[in-house]
Amino acid sequence: MGKWFEEAVFYHMYPIGMTGAPRRNEQSEVTHRFGQLEEWLPHIESLGCTAVYIGPLFESTSHGYDTRDYRMVDRRLGDNEDFRHFVQEAHRRNIRVVVDGVFNHVGREFFAFQDVQRNRESSQYCSWFKGLNFGWNSPFNDGFGYEAWHNCFELVNLNYWEGRVREYILDVIGFWISEFDIDGIRLDCADCLDFSFMEDMRRYTNERKADFWLMGEVIHGDYSRYVKPHLLDSVTNYELHKGLYSGHNDHNYFEIAHTIRREFDRNGGIYRGLRLYSFVDNHDVDRIASKLHVPGHIYPVHTLLFTLPGIPSIYYGSEWGIHGRKEGGNDDPLRPHVDLKEALRNPDDQRLLDWIRTLGRIRKETPALVWGEYQELLLTNRQYAFARILDDTGVIVAVNNDENQADLRIRLPRPDKEMVDLTDGSPVMAENGMLHLVLQPDESRLIRF
User: Fold this and answer.
1) Which residues contact 130 (CB under 8 A, 6 or more apart)?
2) Cβ neighbours of residue 206 under 8 Å, at least 6 residues apart?
3) What is residue 407's three-state secondary structure?
4) Cα–chain-centroid distance for residue 203?
5) CB-based burial label for 345 (10 Å; 0-12, 13-18, 19+)
6) 88-140: per-residue pLDDT in tens?
7) Domains of the chain (ranges plus CATH)?
8) How many CB atoms lie within 10 A of CB 328?
9) At residue 329, does pLDDT exceed 90?
10) Residues 6 or more apart from 220 whose CB is under 8 A from it?
11) Is pLDDT at 31 greater than 80 in this prediction?
12) Are 231 and 202 in contact (CB under 8 A)?
């Protein structure tokens, strides 16, 4: 019915962390860790995921976002041939591959910045960097100053008003498409990039791959400024992310329902028709299992992730509820090494893993959860029910965040339809156009009509 990414379920891989690679890249040799990453593909497939977002991958100095070389896979993970094989294996399983595009800034070991360090005013790359000023000094005592991302001076901002920078980065994108056959790019710090450059990127990628996906990391502001036919296909839905955990922590389903009404309601939703990227955690925010006050809330949280409007994403390890919180400015606890075989033998939460697999199966088998119009059916602080309706069929989703059993009566949007519980295939009966559901604490029900 649409492009592949509109009905995708993503799996988010942070490869430096998940393989246990060193946090600093001080080696000259290549360490081949992509074999570890390939071992995750059957597991990813078992969750119902149809795409991976993996990155950062560019050769870098530390966490991956301080790029040294855009045309080289980070030597801590492997070489270019290793990644090419990873993409081939993913494609063999009908899993698309999207990589991190770190294009707003580079690391201090990037060739053009090192040329400025050596040649100062005589460097041909002076115009490549924002705010370069030889009358200032940087915290690294370079003898010149420059604009850095959020004043993190290991990240040097590129200047997209310089045509050679645009040409260089577009050529890099072309290299990753032609060399590895990637299917899309997640733009790091998209809210810092110049809009006219994103237009150039859209034209460039359209010429090379018609269904190439461009998704931007945008935290605040109006997402519709970015998601347009001539710009990006999607952005990160941080607004819904916040609602999904705080709506449970505060026993306040009104917050989540208000967010969905504001964003996607058929009458006045400011993002209706747009496909935003949904997540409950990622490599930059505390793990959802660490954020929730009531551990059992992790089940309805994931139900809503898979069934509300959006493109759902699972961050590696969160499918069995691993914990992790930032430690000051240290993100390493969010990005741990995971031994996949051991994690599957002894998952922190087997029930959650099974539930996410069930949700992945149901979403794949139920077009209404992808394309269906949203309709709110019932709302209290602790219970929430809605439908996703596609033509004359649909799904009713009901969740309970209470520590007590909940007795719900829901008016059916299509009272003449037979109903089936999607978790076990059992028939569901209604009476006088009303559905009667009894939900246990933290239980979800998904019912097809």
Assistant:
1) 146, 147, 157, 158, 159
2) 212
3) strand
4) 23
5) exposed
6) 999 999 999 999 999 999 999 999 999 999 999 999 999 999 999 999 999 99
7) 4-369 (3.20.20.80), 372-448 (2.60.40.1180)
8) 5
9) no
10) 191, 238
11) yes
12) yes
The amino acid sitting at 346 is N
On average, the pLDDT of the chain sits at 97
According to the model, what pLDDT value does residue 1 have? Answer: 62
If you search the block for the tokens 């509300």, which residue do you land on?
Answer: 308
* Bridge partners (DSSP) listed for residue 59: 69
Quick: pLDDT tens for 274-310: 999 999 999 999 999 999 999 999 999 999 999 999 9
* CA 269, 273, 279, 282 torsion-angle sign: negative
Token pair for 71:
């045309």
Backbone angles phi, psi at 299, to 5 degrees: -75, -55
Longest dimension (CA), the chain: 82
Query: Is 385 within 8 Å of 436 (Cβ atoms)?
Result: no
Q: Are strands 96-101 and 51-54 parallel, antiparallel or unpaired?
A: parallel
Element (H, E) at 291: helix 288-291
Please report the pLDDT score of residue 45 as a whole number.
Answer: 98
| 414 class by beta-carbon count within 10 Å (0-12 exposed, 13-18 middle, 19+ buried) | middle
Query: Could you tell me the end-to-end alpha-carbon distance of the chain, in angstroms, rounded to an integer?
Result: 21
Measured between alpha carbons, how far is 303 from 100 in angstroms, rounded to an integer?
Answer: 27
Cα separation, 18 vs 337, whole angstroms: 4
The structure tokens 């990227």 sit at 277
SS3 assignment, position 216 = strand
CB contact at 8 A, 357 and 46? yes
CA atoms within 13 A on the CB side of 282: 20
User: What number of H helices and E strands is found in the chain?
Assistant: 13, 22
Please list the alpha-helical segments (H only) found in 308-395: 340-345, 350-365, 368-371
* Mean pLDDT across 157-175: 98
For the whole model, what pTM was predicted? 0.97
Length of the chain: 449
Three-class secondary structure of residue 362 per DSSP:
helix
